[in-house]
Amino acid sequence: MWRSAARRSSLFRRLLSSSSSAAASYAPPAVYIVNKRGNDILNDPWYNKDTAFPMTERDRLGLRGLLPPRVTCFEEQYERFINSYRTLENNMQGEPDSTRVALAKWKDLNRLHSRNETLYYRVLIDNIEEFAPIVYTPTVGLVCENYSGLFRRSRGMYFTAKDKGEMMSMIYNWPADKVDMIVVTDGSRILGLGDLGVQGVGIPIGKLDLYVAAAGINPQKVLPVILDVGTNNEKLLEDKLYLGLRQPRLEGEEYLAIIDEFMEAVRARWPKAVVQFEDFQMKWAFETLERYRNRFCMFNDDIQGTAGVALAGLLGAVRAQGRPLHDFPNQKIVVVGAGSAGIGVLNKAKKATLKMGITEEGHNQFWVLDKDGLITKVREGLDPAVASFARGSGPNEIPDLHEGASLVEVVKKVKPHVLLGLSGVGGIFNEEVLKAMKESDSPRPAVFAMSNPTTKAECTPDDVFKHVGENAIFASGSPFSNVSLGNGKTGYANQANNMYLFPGIGLGALLSGARNISVGMLEAGAECLASYITDDEIKKGILFPPVSSIRHITAQVGAAVLRAAIAEDLAEGCDGVGPKELSTMSELETVDYVTQKMWYPVYHPLVSKK
To answer: Where is the active site (predicted)?
Structure first.
């Protein structure tokens, strides 16, 4: 079921060798024909090269005299920006307001993005480990909270409740003839911050930056979308700067009619685009997933992406705890948070146990808590999505664990192997809870603090290694630094971030030309990620690879997803490469094909038609 670490490492080495060979046969960048001249080019971030325009281009594009006389190369521009950024960092050292520091860094990168996209994406790709937390979580949460005040330049499209009946024509206002990837949100549940209305547009923008950096999706073929159906956030409705609709959220059939119209408009113009749903509140996350999953090439990252990454981490924890993978169904897991992400993880883990041959009716390895405590079958108004995971009665139940039992009480009595948080409640894994985890039935208790942004994380790695012990395993949704344990030992702060998985899902679906994204395709991506880490790394407590290798990881995940689409007869091909040709590729050839299709930022020669 899971590819061996040795085979994975061998494939990775061969992939690098193959990529090196491809680099040796490098072809010069294609010429771009533009319908612009002069300042119109300088004001277009896609074509603008700043001072890197050679003199011949300056002459033919009407740029002579509009730029400083010295021509600088790409590498000099890159170094200039990095040096400027380091100066900003140095100047802000000692600044007590961490929010101000984070937003200052985001603004610096955003200015580059607005001026020169090619240089921006090169900076992001080469420094992804450092800059991903700025363009996405945790800083993107701050950006969304302050978006109306930070707004300078529009990115993406805004479809609102007032646009009903107009979306089929509105979709043609977007200038790109082809769109490959769309990320859409309704702003109703942004990270762990709640309803941010139109300000949630920062999420699709940040996600698509990661698609470009990690999956090599051409930035000219991505579209961030906000569906503004109103907001129930009274603070925003009273904010004079708020840029969204000032009305309560649509509900019921009125709400679904807006989403339906948007999805049909997308299909009409870009029938092969992949659509990722992001940060919808729980009831609409599940409703829209079930409504569209078999009719469109779409997926919900909160339900399916988070679940895949969490499952990879849970399986890694089994290995780190010295147990075989087939023992996963016996792993006792306490889950705090019963929203869309939490239920998605539970469903994914349940399917994994079934795949491992567990067919026992009533088998339940989970203890799920929400704001009202432990969820049991006696709870009134039990949500159907969580009902199958509610505790009941019988020989497998722990005595005296009643409906609504507190987290500390559950941890003390269950002695779980894993404590997994998707609650959005910062610090809920407090000292008392973590000390109770120290009495786990596993010699290496695992604590996953998955909520974003950092302020909403259930605990920190310092807390875990201090109170649970040096043998603990830690993973989180937002980035933390590793912890020095003394005597040369390191407590690894694994980042269980969706960016390990969703770019590969989208890329594999796109290159296969999949009609829809199946459970099998998602499982193939998660299995590929889970098998990426070697046994030696697992023994150290490392569950996920470094973010710096994200493009290599994405290529392999994308290839696994593509091959699954072929196997399930869902692939229709892409860019002239049909399903028959894709099906004849070996595993290595598929990875190499995916790698070659990934966009990389270089300056292209420009010729004006004017």
So the answer is: 136 (proton donor), 207 (proton acceptor)
User: pLDDT tens digit string along 415-451?
Assistant: 999 999 999 999 999 999 999 999 999 999 999 999 9
End-to-end CA distance of the chain: 58
User: Which sign does the torsion angle of CA 14, 15, 20, 23 carry?
Assistant: positive
**What six digits make up the tokens of 256?**
């679904």
Q: Is 177 annotated as a binding residue?
A: no
Q: Crossing angle of helices 519-530/340-355, nearest 10°?
A: 80
Q: Is 163 annotated as a binding residue?
A: no
Element containing residue 274 per DSSP (H, E): strand 274-277
The C-alpha atoms of residue 159 and residue 136 are separated, in whole angstroms, by: 23
Q: Is 207 a catalytic residue?
A: yes
What pLDDT is attached to residue 383?
A: 85
User: Was 370 annotated as part of a binding site?
Assistant: no
| Residue 158 a catalytic site member | no
The pTM score is 0.91
Catalytic residue among 105, 207, 221, 350: 207
430 labeled part of a ligand binding site: no
Average pLDDT over residues 334-354: 92
Nearest 5 degrees, angle CA 288-CA 290-CA 293?
A: 90
Q: Angle 308-194-377 (CA atoms, 0-180°, nearest 5)?
A: 65
CB neighbour class for 395 (10 Å; exposed up to 12, middle 13-18, buried from 19): exposed
Per-residue pLDDT reduced to its tens digit, 138-151: 999 999 999 999 99
Which residue's entry shows tokens 């009609």? Answer: 515
Active-site position among 136, 292, 593, 603:
136
Task: Flag whether 515 is marked binding.
Answer: no
Length of the chain as a residue count: 610
Quick one: which of 76, 241, 229 has its CA closest to 167?
A: 229
Q: How confident is the model at residue 24 (pLDDT cuts 50, 70, 90)?
A: very low
Read off the pLDDT of each residue in 150-167 and give the average, rounded to a whole number: 96
Q: How far is CA 37 from CA 54, 72, 113, 140, 607, in A?
A: 15, 20, 21, 35, 9
Q: What's the CA gap between 191 and 194, in Å, rounded?
A: 7
